[in-house]
Design goal:
two-stranded antiparallel sheet, three-stranded mixed sheet, 6 helices, Aldehyde Dehydrogenase, Chain A, domain 2, 32% helix
Length: 183
């Protein structure tokens, strides 16, 4: 657990924030003030509930809605950062005793937009991914989207699918013209 947290903290600390159109920038600003304030509120709530900030944890000074990648540990079950969809660069890292417990906890939410499973045994990680209740589950990566692959949530996350054939179908209106055969 500590080794994983250390690697995540290192990645978070090295992340480049800035104009998303600039080469080398990994994270642009949060898309609006309301979402920016929500992320700040969720992190503060987690800290008040005993979470430890390992990386990030506070917005950047200056203009723009920049919030650095944040790694939290010692996060309690039932904390808002765990139970709610945050749509921000905050990762609560929580230990588990076994795979069954990890899957049960991952599925205990009413949301299911996306999840990721990480491991050195890709076949086992893929098997575990099949147990996680989410619209998209990545193995050994996260958030990799492609226009030819459908994306959308399950449970209370999202309303259908985007991308792939779903996008074409959602933007297509079928029309039938029937012509009588001449007699």
């Amino acid at each position: 657990f500590d080794e994983v947290v250390g690697h995540l903290a290192e990645l978070a600390s090295k992340a480049r924030l800035g104009d998303g159109f600039q080469k080398g920038v990994q994270y642009g600003p949060i898309n609006n003030k309301m979402q920016f304030e929500r992320i700040k509120e969720l992190v503060e709530d987690a800290k008040k509930s005993g979470a430890k900030v390992v990386a990030g944890g506070a917005p950047l000074e200056g203009s723009g809605y920049f919030y650095p990648p944040t790694i939290l540990t010692n996060v309690a079950e039932g904390t808002r950062i765990v139970d709610e969809e945050q749509f921000g660069p905050v990762l609560p890292v929580m230990p588990y005793a076994n795979v069954a417990e990890a899957v049960q906890r991952a599925n205990a939410t009413r949301f299911g937009l996306g999840a990721s499973v990480w491991g050195t045994d890709v076949a086992r990680a893929t098997e575990v991914a099949g147990m996680v209740e989410a619209g998209t589950v990545w193995v050994n990566k996260h958030g990799d989207l492609s226009p030819d692959i459908p994306f959308g949530g399950s449970k209370e996350s999202g309303i259908g699918r985007q991308m792939g054939d779903y996008t074409l179908e959602s933007h297509t209106e079928s029309k039938v013209i029937r012509i009588a055969k001449p007699k």
